[in-house]
Amino acid sequence: MRIATWNVNSIRARVTRTVDWMVREDIDVLAMQEIKCRPDQFPYAPFEEAGYEVVAHGLNQWNGVAFASRAPLTDVETAFHGMPGFLKGEEGPDLPKEARALGVTVDGIRLWSLYVPNGRALGDPHLDYKLDWYARLADTVREQLSAQPDLPLALMGDFNVAPLDEDNGDPAVVEGVSTHVSPPERAAFAALETAGLTDVVRPLAPTGYTYWDYKQLRFPRNEGMRIDFILGSPAFADRVTGASIHRNERKGEAPSDHVPVLVDIADHEDDDDDRPMIF
Questions:
Q1: At what angle do helices 183-194 and 125-147 cross, to 10 degrees?
Q2: For 225, how many CA atoms within 13 A lie in the half-sphere containing its CB?
Q3: pLDDT tens digit string along 142-196?
């Protein structure tokens, strides 16, 4: 199974490009972020014509997450347990939840498409929201893997954090001045690994950015950031056989500012390579 994640930055503007890439790369499941539309506005037809089922979660022209899959999508959830909400200038436990998380099960694998809050600026309430969002997500992962240690689980998407210094090549993003590289944000990302997840792409694709700002010729200068990830539980990570970052999708006409990240997953029957030969 080939599973990918892509912040498409408006699916209605990039539906043809997205579907063409999925077919060309033989993608079985794609997690999408920043679809920027409601489910009734989603361009389903091109996906369905290519053999994909779609589940979308969006509330307006901002944010939004979706899945497209060749296999059935079941157990759909539009929020993880304890996911906080946000409303500028407001506080409290009942703030509206944004369309930033979508969970599905595909062939026994639990997948989440996540668009982590940006944070906006150091000292901004949106950064507090981002850190709280991360903390609740880590708690949920920890609880779920404690209850189901053999669960093949993957969190995929735009995490809006460059966890290592080498993940940031944008000269405008500076520690102590900018979000995405601050110690609290990096610690929040690291907490997901402490909760039981592993970056399953980095060991197989150790270098490469996944995002380049549209401004200041960031892409031609390769001044990007690595902020899109696939984090897997041990049961998921053990089945990963390949991974790649598709940099060329940042080229061409009207690209997203992000590129796809994908992993190949072994089928259940391929999991045990040490089975005895029977003649």
A1: 10
A2: 22
A3: 999 999 999 999 999 999 999 999 999 999 999 999 999 999 999 999 999 999 9
